[in-house]
Every structure is written in C-alpha cells, then in structure tokens.
Amino acid sequence: MRDTLLKICGITKEEDGLAAFDLGADLIGVVRAPGSPRYASEETIRSLHAMKVPLAGVYTHKEDIGPEADYLDYIQLHFKHSADVIKSVKEEHRVQIISVAISSDPEVARKLSEYSAGGADIVMIEFANGFRREMEKAKLLRRNFRFGAAGSIQHEDLPSIRGLDLAMIDVSRSLESSPGVKDREKMRSFIEEALN
Question: HSE of 47 in the Cβ direction (CA atoms, 13 Å)?
Fold first, then answer.
C-alpha cells in the first residue's frame, strides 16, 4: 500500500465503486447522511464488501451509524467529536477511524491533536473553501501534523498535494457527471495521475 491513501468518495452505485477500486483507489467512500444526493444504500455497501472493496462509511451524526457498519473497514466521523466517541465507535464496530476537522474551525490544530491522541487512525481536514484556496493554511498545518485532505480537490491540485506528503487524498465531486454518479474518464485520469 502506498504512503498516501487515495479515497474516492460519494459512491452511490456498485459499478462506480468497483471501477474506482479497479483503477487503483485504496478506499471507496460511501456517504451515510440521510438526504444527501450521495447517500449510499446498505445494499450497495454489502455488495461492494462482498467483492472485497475496502469501504469507508462517512457519517455526519453518530446516531446514523447502523448495522451497515459491519461491512465497513473505516468509519469517517465527519462531525465534531471527542476521544471518547472515537474509542466507543472503534470498540463497538471493530473498524478504523477517520476523524475530520474543518479548516474554518479556529481550533482546527487542537482538534487534529485531540483526534490523533484519541486513537484516530487517520486525521483529515475538510478545507471548507476548497483545497486550492487554502493551500497556505494546509502548508502551515502540515508542519506539525500529517493529515488527509478533502474539499473540492481537482486534478490540477495533485502536484501541490504531492509536495505535502499527505496521509490521504479524499476526492468526490470533481469526478462526477452528476451528484452521486461518477464519470469514468475523470476517475481514470485523476487516479492515474495520483498514482504516478
């Protein structure tokens, strides 16, 4: 496995998840926020799990974590949480944890430190204004933390991202033909560039 994980997120269709994995993605992200246009059904999650596709379930509330968690490799806590939440979710579901901090939070550095110390396997920053617009903040935070990055990441951002040696690249919307539907050519091109 490479040093920087590549996660293709917002997968709603089995065939898109399988294609992303076959193209070289390390993790397939399935959103479990009810009402989201990128919401993945439990059936899709179970199918991808059966095909040995590594899955990360993305949750915006702890109470949304349900029986589908049995089919996940990671649970992404995409909301403010404590070390106790990390521990309880890990123990209950036997998964690895991705803890997300938001770049616009004035205490983002403290949250990264808290999540790391609290047992998160990967800490990630959601760049609220888009990764490209917050490049300087990313460079500054990278001096003290190794984190994954999400937030409107585009193909053109890959050279800058590569220079930061991030823990993970999390990309979703820029690879879509419509919300929740991936464009195969965009995925192929992005993954190919990310892997080289």
Answer: 14
Structure tokens at 190: 């992005």
Read off the tokens for 157: 């951002």
As a residue count, the chain comes to: 196
**Strand residue runs (E) in 5-48:** 5-8, 27-31
Beta partners for residue 6, in sequence order: 169
Mean pLDDT for the chain overall: 96
Q: Which residue has the tokens 């702890």?
A: 62
Q: CB-hemisphere CA count at 13 Å for 89?
A: 31
d(CA 40, CA 54): 15
pTM for the model stands at 0.95
Q: What is the pLDDT of residues 25-59, one digit of tens each?
A: 999 999 999 999 999 999 999 999 999 999 999 99
d(CA 111, CA 72): 24
Q: How far apart are CA 144 and CA 190, in angstroms?
A: 28
CATH among 3.20.20.370, 3.30.230.70, 3.20.20.70, 3.40.50.2000 for 5-195: 3.20.20.70
Kindly give, in sequence order, each residue whose CB lies less than 8 Å from that of residue 159, ignoring residues fewer than 6 positions away. Answer: none
Domain-wise residue ranges, the chain: 5-195
